[in-house]
Amino acid sequence: MRALWCIAVASLSACQCGGRVVGSSSSLSIEPGAVDFGVVQPASVEARELVAQVRGRASLTLTAVSIEARDGRFTTTLRPRVLTPGDEHRFVVEYAAPTGGAADEGVLIVEAGGEVVRVPLRAAVPAACVPRTSCLVLESESPECGTAPDGCGGVVGCGACAPTQQCMNQRCVASPVDAGAPPDAGALSDAGRPTDAGVTPDAGACVPTTCAARGASCGALPDGCGGTLACGSCGGGATCTQHQCVCPGGAVEVCGDGVDNDCDGNADCVDADCAAMPVCAQPACANAAPEVQVTAAPANSNGSAIVSVGNGSWLLVAHESDGNLSLRYTAYRLDHQLQVVGAPQPMPNMFAAHKPFAAWTGTALGLAWSDARSPTNANDVYFGRLSSSGQPLGLETGVSTQPGLAFPASVGWNPTAGEFGVLWADDRTAGPGNDRALYFRRLTAHGQLAGAEVSLSAAPTGLTTDFNDITWGGTTWGIVATQLRNAAPFMLFNRLSSTGAPELADVQLNVSGRGAYQPRIASGAAHYGVVFEEHRPGASGQSEVVFVRASKTGPANPVRTQLTTSGTASLPAVVWTGAQWLVFFSDRRTGLPRIWLTRLDAVGARLGQDELMSCAPVGASFPQAAFDGSAVALTWVSTVGTQPQAFVKRFTP
To answer: How many angstroms separate the CA atoms of 302 and 198, rounded?
Structure first.
């Protein structure tokens, strides 16, 4: 069906149908590739969530978003914006059904990089039911009494009989003689027959019909004797149509969309219809600890960072949105049971910030981010501190406010010097293209700039730096970054002195020719642990998670371990517990993106089988984790209704 839709709507040779737009080095993927709202009830509104994601080497700018359809019944929350590689942007398409019958089709059109992606849209609306206002005449015989179906699940009155008559089959007939008392065995009526004690045994007595006999499961029907049968109501979102419960979603459950499509009270994998579907054929969840939803509508969370703030408490910083461009951070203090303590603390000065990176000093949280609050709409890098309860401490500091496009940024904490280290990418070439070099800068424990910034890219021309990460390893900073050098992708590792001087020539961690994105780094006993997603050659939509162990002293001696083989693993995070590396990632290996865990020993050898960590049968992505010395707190994003929200669970590793 999807292929047929593509043929029907394709009118531009350079378009793809719900797939991807291919630019010079990136592609835009929108899933699902076609949206069928199914049967939508008259005068109601249905919504479907879609995901836009860049696959490739550089950011893409969505220059135009429109919908081709009649009457404007299809709308979308997607707006022109910049999408960075690896990020998922979730948006909604809505359909407002008219009051009458309709079969609507449309196309969502997204322009990016000079190309076009088209997502077919379809919905069907049944004709509105108009009840009859008078009784239906059958066989040229007008009814005299009782009720008759109105054709829309109700009834219409057909009149009443005289007091001495009763209604039988919509006809008025004489009522039987009724003495109103129990019969006397010896008593005879004047006609010589026993009297009727009120049970109307007369030969012409009316026998009411039943709902079962009429094949009705809902609504009201005449009982044929002047009364009305109540045949029940419909549950689970079904509507009563011609005395049958009809589900707007049809008779088959759609597995994994969060909706009870067949109106049987069971949604997705709880429904028996989904038992054999791959999306529900999940292994047993490895950890049954409660999964606590932290954020809630009307806001949504596009990712979050979490740190331990002592005494079993945690601070979660959610990357929230109240619109397509208003992307800000909100801090939530969580107790040892992961319940929110106090009011959430938003950071209102932000505008279109990128996902959060955080570092805890023992008394304060340091955040580094890039956002577009500048009047010129250029991204700059900022730094701010929060208390353990999420309250801002002091003023925000501009780390890089020079002309250019600066993003994204990461942050680490050096307890030896009492300084933060901030790593970011910055385009200062003032020429064509997007030549983002890598920079490092220190800040004091109070957020003041310390020393000069350090440029880590000798020849920025032809180079694009994307996501990066930094951590303190005891004597050096460990850094990792995605860089495109003249369109060739690299995942690069290095060590910096406490003041930012590189110790090594950049060390390539990915296989040459394979795109590598979304790096994270953690510090172990003698090694740094790096994780990233690596894309298969010629298949930017297929990725695996890779772990690399790199030495803290001397040559890096990187040792690679590919952790997955599904082709659908992405967005990894890594934590060192003092004895193990814990690598969390999102994977669609069973049809639905879920959070998985791979355990590795100190040298990077796998320990046991992968463990499923997100237990609810809904999609999950963007994992991040922290270790407080005894417990791990894991946070991720799952969709609730139509909006992504931040979840967290805690477990002992």
So the answer is: 73
Helix (H) / strand (E) element for 212: namely helix 211-214
Q: What angle do CA 108, 109, 110 make, to 5 degrees?
A: 120
Distance CA 157, CA 191 (A): 37
Task: For residue 89, list its beta bridge partners.
Answer: 52
Containing 464, the helix (H) or strand (E) segment is strand 463-472
Task: Transcribe 565-626 into DSSP letters.
Answer: -SSBEEEEEEEE-SS-EEEEEEE-TTSS-EEEEEEE-TTS-EEEEEEE---SSS-EEEEEEE
Q: What is the pLDDT of residues 37-88, one digit of tens each?
A: 888 878 777 778 788 888 777 888 888 888 988 777 888 888 888 888 767 7
Between the CA of residue 55 and those of 21, 29, 52, 592, 625, what are the distances in Å? 10, 7, 10, 19, 25
Local structure of residue 187 (DSSP, 8 states)? -
Nearest CA to 328 out of 338, 316, 342, 317 is that of 317
Residue 113: CB atoms within 10 A of its CB come to 21
- Of all helices (H) and strands (E), which one includes residue 490? strand 488-496
Instruction: State the Cα–Cα distance between residues 366 and 534, nearest whole angstrom.
Output: 29
Q: Are 226 and 145 in contact (CB under 8 A)?
A: yes
Of 571, 614, 549, give the one whose Cα is nearest residue 287.
614
- Phi-psi map region of 284: left, alpha, beta (phi>0 left; psi -120 to 50 alpha): beta
> pLDDT tens digits, residue range 143-189?
788 887 776 667 778 888 887 787 877 778 777 654 444 444 444 33
Which has the closest alpha carbon to 226: 207, 211, 240, 247? Answer: 207
Residue holding tokens 């990233």? Answer: 532
Given a cut of 60, is residue 138 above it in pLDDT? Answer: no
**Is residue 13 over pLDDT 60?**
no
Strand locations in 207-334 (E): 220-222, 228-230, 239-241, 244-246, 292-293, 300-310, 313-321, 327-334
HSE on the CB side for 296, CA within 13 Å?
5
